[in-house]
UniProtKB/TrEMBL annotation:
GO MF term list: DNA nuclease activity; hydrolase activity, acting on ester bonds; metal ion binding
Native organism: Botrimarina colliarenosi
Pfam families the UniProt entry points to: TatD_DNase
Similarity section: Belongs to the metallo-dependent hydrolases superfamily. TatD-type hydrolase family.
Gene3D superfamilies linked to this entry: Metal-dependent hydrolases
InterPro entries reported for this sequence: DNase_TatD-rel_CS, Metal_Hydrolase, TatD-like, TatD/YcfH-like
Swiss-Prot/TrEMBL keywords: Hydrolase, Metal-binding
Binding site for a divalent metal cation 1: H6, H8, E92, D204
Protein name per the record: Putative deoxyribonuclease YcfH
Length: 257
């Protein structure tokens, strides 16, 4: 049994066939799926989805590339939604220098809000990091000085040293389809070095479809099975043990309330 820890199932691309998508996930042994918010509206939609489906779990927050569009009151709504049934985490949050559409200080402000809310609610946070590893680690370090951290580096593409430090700070590291891509040798080396009890898998659907189904344009939770099998082979671990441990890790971090 597998746990897709990151999917954007509220997106329009899934509006017409979500039941079939979830059926295919079950068929692939993917029982639990975290559905991830990027702004107040999507977080609201996700809490509604989680209320309809017992195996869909809500993660609410404002993505770094979306914080520039946040309206007054949106953050208050995230705080309110964080207490809703079916919510298992906060995010996605973090920092992004790749798209460069949102002032960096504003991204840092919102990342800090998610980290503080995590520390007061006990809900884990989900970190998006793109081309700003040092800045993300710096904020995690200062948050750690305030208290323990619970969270995950999602769709990780950083360095081995960064993964090691994130783990030391209390986080888990999650890999998406990118690790299966031909050019991702450096990322594969990172993935081999993450202890199995700190590792998660995800699709980041509808993005990043893994090999060998990469030609499928819209990624979906069933495909996390490909990434999991790939990682198990890469690490020389039996698939069943890998699936069992990564699912247990996810359930330990993302606790429904
Ligand atoms: Zn995402």
């Amino acid at each position: 049994m597998l746990y897709d820890t990151h999917a954007h199932l509220d997106q329009r691309t899934f509006a017409d066939d979500l039941p079939a998508v979830l059926e295919r996930a079950r068929g692939a042994g993917v029982l639990d799926v975290n559905v991830i918010g990027v702004d107040a509206a999507s977080s609201r939609a996700i809490v509604a989805l989680a209320a309809e489906h017992s195996k869909l779990h809500a993660v609410v927050g404002i993505q770094p590339n979306d914080v520039g569009e946040a309206q007054p009151g949106d953050w208050d709504e995230i705080v309110r939604l964080a207490a809703a049934p079916g919510v298992v985490g906060l995010g996605e949050t973090g920092l992004d220098r790749y798209w460069d559409a949102t002032p960096f200080e504003q991204q840092q402000d919102y990342f800090d809000r998610h980290l503080r809310l995590s520390q007061t609610t006990g809900l884990p946070f989900v970190v998006h990091m793109r081309e700003c590893e040092e800045e993300v680690l710096a904020m995690l370090r200062s948050a750690r000085e305030r208290g323990p951290l619970a969270g995950v580096m999602h769709s990780y593409t950083g360095t081995a040293a960064g993964a090691t430090e994130a783990i030391e700070l209390g986080l888990l590291v999650s890999f998406a389809g990118m690790v299966t891509f031909k050019k991702s040798d450096a990322l594969r080396e990172v993935a081999v070095g993450v202890p199995l009890d700190r590792l998660l898998v995800e699709t980041d659907a509808p993005y990043l479809t893994p090999e060998p189904v990469r030609k499928v344009k819209r990624n979906e939770p069933a495909h996390v099975a490909h990434t999991a099998r790939f990682l198990a082979d890469l690490r020389g671990e039996p698939f069943d043990a890998f699936a069992e441990q990564t699912t247990a890790n996810a359930k330990r971090l993302f606790v429904p309330r």
